[in-house]
Amino acid sequence: MNRLDQLNSTLRRLQNASPGVEAAAVISEDGLMIASALSQDLDEMRVAGMTATLLSLGTRAAGELRRGIVQEVIVRGDNGYAVMINAGRGALLLVLANEDAKLGLIFFDMRDAIERVRQIL
User: Contact 98/20 with Cβ under 8 angstroms?
Assistant: First the structure.
């Protein structure tokens, strides 16, 4: 199994393990899509670019506000959450979850997925 297949398998496992997770993606820090399990109505290029920008801005804001190293960036809207976590080696993990999702479980499962992503990359 090649690295892309392994990453896609990891994303599907994350979706299946966490109730409420609707989509997931591994994105490079410079805003390029590496692997995704996104719905067809989302533009991968736009999602990747926005995700990288949000994590970068969060990191800069945390530094300027003396909050330390960013653990995650969360965007909460009427229809749910977008959660971004640095996955190491120049990558980040994005999860889109519905409004009923249990964030504690999602964070736990995301950290497990990040360990697999790090091993694959």
Answer: yes
Total-model pTM? 0.92
Task: Provide the 3-class DSSP secondary structure of residue 4.
Answer: helix
DSSP state at residue 66: T
Q: What SS3 class is residue 106?
A: helix
CATH assignment, 3-120: 3.30.450.30
Is the predicted pLDDT of residue 107 greater than 90, yes or no? yes
**Cβ atoms within 10 Å of 91's Cβ, excluding its own:** 21
Return the residue matching tokens 């496992």.
Answer: 13
- Shortest CA distance to 102 belongs to which of 12, 13, 10, 19? 19
Please give the average per-residue pLDDT across 62-82, as a whole number. 94
The backbone torsions φ and ψ at residue 21, rounded to the nearest 5 degrees and listed phi first, read -75, 120
Q: What 8-state DSSP symbol labels residue 116?
A: H
Nearest partner of 93 among 46, 28, 45, judged by Cα = 28
Determine the Cα–Cα distance for residues 117 and 29; give it in Å rounded to an integer: 14
